[in-house]
Amino acid sequence: MPSLRRQRFIYAHFAWLLSVVLLLTVLDSLTYDLLFLFSLIGFLVVTELTAPVSVTPRWRQRLIWPIVLGLIGFTVLVVRRIVAILPPEVLPV
User: Where are the transmembrane segments (predicted)?
Assistant: First the structure.
């Protein structure tokens, strides 16, 4: 059975994702890139806001892998955007 803190973390992240999807839908800007970016930001914020002060539970130690994968995905998105902005003469063939 999940602990109260773990449930609070899951509920907070779910509320963040739901509000992001609704906001992006209302603004007619719902794309995979923006959804990924805002979900990563929300995941990092919720992770920091729900961090315990003294003892770190084992389930929170496993959050490092989604954070690392999210930052790698963010790097890929940034590189893709930069390549799309650059003129074709700048990129080597």
Answer: 9-27, 33-51, 63-83
Dihedral of the alpha carbons of 63, 16, 33, 22, in degrees to the nearest 10: 160
What's the CA angle centered on 52, arms 51 and 58, to 5 degrees? 85
The three-class DSSP label of residue 80 is helix
> What's the whole-number mean pLDDT along residues 34-47?
94
Q: Which domain holds residue 35?
A: 4-85
Question: What is the C-alpha end-to-end distance of the chain, expressed in Å?
Answer: 55
- Say how many domains are in the chain: 1
pLDDT tens across 69-92, in order? 999 999 999 999 998 898 888 877
- Could you tell me if residue 79 is inside a domain? yes
The CA-based dihedral angle spanning residues 30, 77, 41, 65, taken in that order and rounded to the nearest 10 degrees: 130
Residue 91 covered by a domain: no
